[in-house]
Design a protein that fits this description.
binds magnesium ion, six-stranded mixed sheet, 256 residues, 24% strand, binds adenosine-5'-diphosphate, 8 helices
Length: 256
């Protein structure tokens, strides 16, 4: 059970209330989009789920476990950013391997005396290489493993970022506007690839976008956010045909 429970999350930066009591239950394997205008708090909420930011109040539960005291690296979630955030000096393969190498490093640091002579080190390297190849095959970037990010197109870079998310076999994927740096054609293509990836993995996806069309085509449910609140969370058809709130209707109906 790797569902996510967002329970009355509040967040203020100084005097500015950015999240005003957000609650949302996301079932294991669900694809939920968070949509809303720029500045409404989508990224902040995602960062709090990921453990990159601390909430002012409320709880996040992953698979039923409260993760308040648990560091980002140990939450078993993968976050994908709009900016890709790849290491320019590392090859594609090494970029994808980063989370696994970090995990191994963390494990070794907990065994400081054993660390250097850890007999599992060589085996772990083989495992890491296999996991990287698997992720690369899934995303059809296995021919690019030796390249540097600078030698890739935007769409390929975003796939490498997805590969790096995939390789950890996370309980859930958190994607923050992953397509917004791509041109329109590539956006449509990558969108359907992400939807396919979700179907294939059956993992939980939380997908942030300000693009309601994107959300409509991919999600099992859409949460419409405005000024730090969720106005409505429902299936795309319901949001479209039966909005709870005039602000939902206006946001969904507005051209981009
Ligand atoms: P969205 O992703 O929906 O565009 P954000 O979550 O990035 O919105 O931001 C929500 C609000 O919180 C914005 O007004 C933004 O300026 C503010 N904010 C975000 N991060 C910080 C921060 N670290 N310090 C101060 N204000 C912040
Ligand atoms: Mg944002």
């Amino acid at each position: 059970m790797a569902g996510l429970q967002i329970d009355r999350i509040e967040k203020s930066f100084g005097d500015t209330r950015v999240l005003r009591g957000i609650s949302l239950d996301i079932a294991d394997g669900e694809f939920v989009s968070l949509v809303g205008p720029s500045g409404c708090g989508k990224s902040t909420l995602l960062r709090i789920i990921a453990g990159l930011e601390h909430q002012s109040a409320g709880h996040i539960r992953i698979g039923g476990r409260d993760v308040s005291g648990i560091r980002a690296a140990e939450r078993n979630l993968s976050m994908v950013f709009q900016s890709y955030a790849l290491y320019p000096h590392l090859s594609v393969g090494d970029n994808i391997a980063v989370p696994l190498r970090m995990r191994r490093l963390n494990a070794m640091q907990r065994l400081p005396l054993l660390g250097r002579y850890w007999p599992g080190a060589r085996a772990a390297n083989v495992d890491i290489n296999q996991a990287v190849s698997r992720a690369a095959r899934t995303l059809e970037i296995d021919a690019l493993l030796a390249r540097k990010p600078g030698q890739l197109s935007g769409g390929q870079r975003q796939r490498v970022a997805l590969g790096r998310a995939l390789v950890r076999e996370p309980a859930a994927f958190l994607l923050d506007e992953p397509l917004s740096n791509l041109d329109a054609k590539l956006r449509v293509q990558t969108r359907s690839e992400i939807a396919q990836l979700h179907r294939r993995l059956g993992a939980t996806f939380v997908y942030v976008t300000h693009d309601q069309v994107e959300a409509m085509t991919m999600s099992s449910r859409i949460a419409v956010m405005m000024r730090g609140e969720i106005l409505q969370c429902a299936a795309p058809e319901t949001i479209y045909d039966d909005p709870d709130d005039i602000r939902v209707a206006e946001f969904i109906g507005s051209p981009r």
